[in-house]
Amino acid sequence: MAVGQVLNDRYRLDSVLGRGGMGAVWLGLDTLLGRRVAVKTLQVETPRAADRFLREARTLAAVRSPDVVRILDFGTSGDGTVFMVMDHVAGLTLATRLADGPLTEPETLGLVGAMARALSTVHAEGIVHRDVKPANIMLNPDGTVILVDFGIALAQGGPKLTQSGVLVGTPSYLAPEQADGGPITPATDVYALGVVAYECLTGHPPFDGSTPMAVISKHLTEEPPPLPPGVSTAAVSLIERALAKAPADRWPDAAAMARAAEDQAAATTIPGPRAVPPEPTGRGRRALIAGAVTLAAVAALAVALRPDASDPQTSRSPEAATGSAPAVPSAAPATAPATTAASAPPPVAGPAAWWQFSATDAPAPELLGNATLKDDAAHDGVLTLDGLSGVASARIPALDPAKPFTVAVWARFSGFGRTERRDVTLASIPGENTSAFLLQYKAAWGADGWQFIMPRADRMEPPVDTAASAVAPKPGRWYFIAGVHDPATRRISLYVDGELQDSARHTATWGSAEPLRLGAHLWARLEGGFWPGALDKAAVYRRALTPGEMKALASW
Where is the composition biased (Low complexity) (predicted)? Predict the structure, then answer.
């Protein structure tokens, strides 16, 4: 699959939103009807497997509910690629919302009631979702919620869609029978929704552990920790019953759970969780881009013990509407970008482009995946990235990575949470097979620190030159990170907080005319390295800045 490819003369693939399991998720365009869609391309090994997917798609397409994402089409392209086409949905994921903190009890009850109703509709069609979690629940600006991602759904009594012996689901939300290889029934989804409800009230799932198996063991043998003291007895009972180890001890069905949640919520007028709360007042803040979320609705079709946040599920599309989004509280940083007027340029003259991620950016970067412009207590604006699919793209005329350049950005690292440690990228320019450069935090393969990397060739596994630092980011702290390429001296250099950390020889340069990517990189033709955290005040120069200029730029 490639950008621009059209499946069955109708669905154009515009950009990769994420990859995982057995396929990739694309932001696409239905060229016949002129509408945005999410396209999931699937890697199937046999015609029999493709036939099973088609049967499941037909069953799911019969589901009609405003709380359940629609499957619009399913087919096989000329090269044998199986694909599903899903709705384009506006809003945020519940996972994104919970990054700002827990919900109130009335908000939680409203969400649980709506999701239980959605599951009841799905179960009535003979489908078990099997992967109910915050990343698969969308919050629309109008307060409604939508259940998405039926990529590993199972028809009751039907054949499994995955190979025998592969545990499918997300460990933090896995029902005991799901973890233990028992029968999968609607009660499995009821348990997962109970985990979601618990997380809504506390900010975290009931069970954690250093490995997926440690989490699964707790689902099988331990009772969940008590909910906070302020939670009502009725809400506690609702969740505890959903989290019963034995399926027979849970709510008899999702409809019963929905009625219980709705009855408890009936006395309050507080609405369900809002994807787009009112704009902050004071200091003349501008409206923030909330955007439309492109649904990466069918995630990994066979996921073996995947971490909670390992698959990107949604995307902010380039056609995003303007609104406001919840501000992410920032930890007090050890250092921070200077608070300046929104229009203040970098202190070093002559940038090819610069951004403060505010309304004054011109041109503004294009937001893709779960990339969001948000207000911040100490800054005019920040670009928040979820570490799953969020990235910003900016075309800078005549910026050629084969020639002298400097790229610099303020970055805040949020940590990996329950996801695996991996290399995550602040800035890059993609080529055909890999990136022309990567400014990143390398946390895998025995390294732990900032790096500025330039491959010597645009090929699948190129040799690379690296300027590295032993400084590893601490979650919540702002860092000023910069990479400098100077072909005159045949050197690349890495700066952290204005100080030179390392310099390396680089002789084999190659160019690319692709846009600058903020928050991700291309490697072996796959986009990845999504940055988990926030960026603020980025600048690019078509020359190699001096050490003195780097110190000055760090004061920006």
Answer: 320-343
Domain membership of residue 460 as a residue range: 347-553
45 lies in the same domain as 70: yes
* pLDDT for residue 266: 78
CATH number assigned to the domain comprising residue 53: 3.30.200.20
> Residues marked as binding for ATP?
40
* Tokens (6 digits) for 196: 């979601």
Please, where are the H alpha helices in 227-285? Answer: 233-242, 254-265
Cβ neighbours of residue 229 under 8 Å, at least 6 residues apart? none
Residue bearing tokens 């506390």: 202
CATH code of the domain containing 115: 1.10.510.10
Residue 454 and residue 490 share a domain: yes
Buried-state track 15-52, b at ≥16 Cβ within 10 A, e below 16: bbbbbbbbbbbbbbbbeeeeebbbbbbbebeeeebbeb
Q: Which residue has the tokens 């990054």?
A: 99
Domain shared by 145 and 66, yes or no: no
Decide if 73 is catalytic: no
Stretch among 33-42, 375-384, 434-443 having the lowest mean pLDDT: 375-384
pLDDT at 282: 30
Q: Are residues 99 and 60 in the same domain?
A: no
Q: For residue 231, tell me if it sits in a domain.
A: yes
Residue 158 burial (CB < 10 Å; 0-12/13-18/19+)? Answer: middle
Whether 460 and 410 map to the same domain: the answer is: yes
Helices 105-124 and 233-242 sit at what angle, rounded to 10 degrees? 30
Catalytic residue among 131, 253, 311, 486: 131
Q: How many CB atoms are located within 10 Å of the residue 169 CB? A: 24
* 258-310 residue pLDDT tens: 999 998 887 654 444 434 333 333 322 222 222 222 222 223 222 223 333 33
Does an H or E element contain 117, and which?
A: helix 105-124
pLDDT tens per residue, range 346-363: 999 999 989 888 766 666
For residue 513, give the DSSP letter.
-
Q: Coil, strand or helix: which one is 439?
A: strand
Query: Does residue 399 have a pLDDT over 80?
Result: no
Of 154, 147, 153, which is closest to residue 118 (Cα–Cα)? 147
Burial of 415 (0-12, 13-18, 19+ CB in 10 A): middle
Helix/strand/coil (H, E, C) string of 112-171?
Answer: HHHHHHHHHHHHHCCEECCCCCHHHEEECCCCCEEECCCCCCEECCCCCCCCCCCCECCH
Give the count of domains, the chain: 3
The strand pairing partners of 500, in sequence order, are: 495
Q: Which residues contact 128 (CB under 8 A, 6 or more apart)?
A: 122, 153, 154, 155, 156, 184, 185, 186, 188, 189
Residues of each annotated binding site: 40
Do 78 and 129 reside in the same domain of the chain? no
Give residue-wise pLDDT tens across range 405-421: 999 999 999 887 654 66
CA 547 to each of CA 385, 471, 550: distance values in angstroms, whole numbers, following the listed order? 29, 19, 5
Q: By the 8 A CB rule, do 490 and 509 touch?
A: no
